[in-house]
Specification:
This protein is of the alpha+beta class and 171 residues long. 40% of the residues lie in helices and 25% in strands.
């Protein structure tokens, strides 16, 4: 019983010392197509998944294009285009703030999906279908879903033989 009481007190103190931010605004430094730094906080946009910075995709003709860098640059341009305001809704397992963000009232996650530079993981299915039909951004050719790309990178990091095989051109 005492242990439960102590844990409850610790949980209350932790929540009090590290409260969830409500609204955030300010100057942002973009990390990739769905996350950025706002002051000392790391923020991840809710509802989308964008290619990772090092990720490449295929054009309609099969050539490579740096979709991760293009997504990052587009998010950066959106954020620089006006006043950024975010509504925080919690934190993820990496302690990043999960938020819906707008620039001058425009939902920037929605804009990323409309431009075809992020996939919807939540409320932007209609926008994704439109981008796909228009063959915009990621939808112009072939691409690996960002989650699958991250998982593959994690697998390669944990398996030293995969790196050697890849380096030797056998993978």
């Amino acid at each position: 019983m005492l242990a439960v009481l102590i844990l409850a007190v610790v949980a209350v103190l932790a929540a009090w010392l590290d409260p969830e931010p409500g609204q955030l605004s300010g100057q942002a430094r973009v990390s990739d197509g769905d996350s950025f730094h706002l002051g000392q906080e790391r923020v991840r946009l809710l509802g989308i998944d964008a290619p990772e910075l090092a990720q490449t995709c295929k054009t309609a003709r099969g050539g490579d294009w740096p979709c991760g860098r293009v997504a990052r640059d587009r998010l950066s341009a959106l954020i620089r285009s006006g006043t950024l305001a975010c509504d925080a809704e919690g934190r993820d397992k990496y302690r990043r703030i999960l938020a819906t963000c707008r620039v001058d009232g425009r939902d920037i996650a929605r804009a990323m999906v409309v431009d075809g530079l992020a996939v919807s993981s939540d409320d932007y299915w209609r926008e994704q279908q439109t981008a796909r039909a228009r063959r915009l951004g990621l939808w112009q050719g072939e691409f690996q879903q960002p989650r699958a790309w991250r998982d593959r990178q994690d697998d390669q990091k944990s398996d030293p033989w995969s790196w050697i095989m890849s380096f030797a051109g056998w993978a």
